[in-house]
Design brief:
The chain is built from nine helices and ten strands. The strands form two sheets. The protein has an eight-stranded parallel beta barrel with strand order 1-2-3-4-5-6-7-10, surrounded by four helices. Strands 8-9 form a two-stranded antiparallel ribbon. Strand 2, helix 2 and strand 3 form a beta-alpha-beta unit. The radius of gyration is 18 Å and the shape is globular. Belongs to the AP endonuclease 2 family. Keywords: DNA damage, DNA repair, Hydrolase, Metal-binding, Nuclease, Zinc. InterPro entries: AP_endonuc_2, AP_endonuc_F2_Zn_BS, Xyl_isomerase-like_sf, Xyl_isomerase-like_TIM-brl.
């Protein structure tokens, strides 16, 4: 497990990787472009290549995160096209930077037929991946259930990947706060043990390629997605210790998306996560 945090690319891809190293992180996440737009970005290929080389030399993992408007379940033809083009752009940037892949939320459907929403997701994945030959993958993230219950179960995530004609280009990103908020991670004493057994049974761990480490401001099962610092929310240090010790042997990036106090960095929280994972 490689621990890090979200880092801005305001000063370029290479500088983001260097910032991760300064924080003693072995992983980081970044938005490959404006996080509030599906606009296709022209990027600096030399900067991306330098970033990939720096990460290889220093043993740093990275993942990109698709912009907020990205919705795999979108119904509107124009938005579908824009979403496909944007995700292709994200994958190309992630590939150039040597990243594991691009995190994308499962998708939300506003129509009356949930089955159509799932069909839209499968079609969108097909249109993004049908001729993709890169190593970077789409990493589907479980959702918190705010606004829609789609994407809140492991069965849904595994089944969507299984039904894709291009499943070899699809992996998963597990978000701890989302899992807790949606009730996927049960509140009780044996909560993580139950979820772990389910993940093993479904083969979910076989395709888990990234993790978002976030505590929760709210109690579990309320479908409210608000992140807290590790150990400062309702998930708590003990639950995180159990979770981290399960995935500690997994060769993947584990990324903090937690708030940072003004004038501080994630360095201390990265050290805390390492401590919880080790004892």
């Amino acid at each position: 497990m490689n621990i890090g945090c979200h880092i801005s690319i305001r000063h370029g891809f290479l500088e983001a990787a260097k910032t991760a190293l300064k924080l003693e992180a072995t992983a980081y996440q970044y938005f490959p472009k404006n996080p509030r737009s599906l606009t296709v970005k022209q990027w600096n290929a030399k900067d991306a290549e330098a970033c990939a080389r720096f990460c290889r030399e220093n043993g740093i993992y990275s993942i990109a995160h698709s912009p907020y408007p990205t919705n795999l379940a979108v119904d509107d033809p124009g938005l579908h096209t824009a979403t496909v083009q944007s995700l292709r752009n994200d994958l190309q940037i992630a590939e150039a930077c040597g990243s594991v892949g691009v995190v994308v939320h499962f998708g939300k459907y506003k129509g009356t037929d949930p089955l159509q929403g799932y069909k839209n997701i499968i079609q969108c994945l097909h249109d993004v991946l049908f001729d993709w030959e890169g190593r970077a993958k789409l990493l589907i993230e479980n959702q918190a259930g705010d606004g829609s219950l789609m994407g809140t179960t492991l069965e849904e995530l595994v089944q969507i990947r299984t039904l894709s004609a291009f499943k070899e280009h699809i992996g998963f990103c597990f978000d701890t706060c989302h899992a807790f908020a949606s009730g996927l991670w049960p509140i009780g004493h044996e909560g993580w043990s139950q979820l772990k057994d389910q993940a093993v049974r479904l083969g979910y761990f076989d395709h888990l390629l990234a993790v978002h480490l976030n505590d929760s401001v709210y109690e579990g099962g309320q479908f409210r997605d608000r992140h807290a610092m590790i150990g400062k929310g309702y998930i708590g240090e003990q639950r995180f210790r159990e979770f981290l010790q399960t995935i500690d042997g997994f060769d993947l990036p584990a990324i903090l998306e937690t708030p940072v106090l003004r004038g501080h960095t994630h360095a201390g929280e990265i050290r805390l996560v390492r401590q919880l994972a080790s004892n």
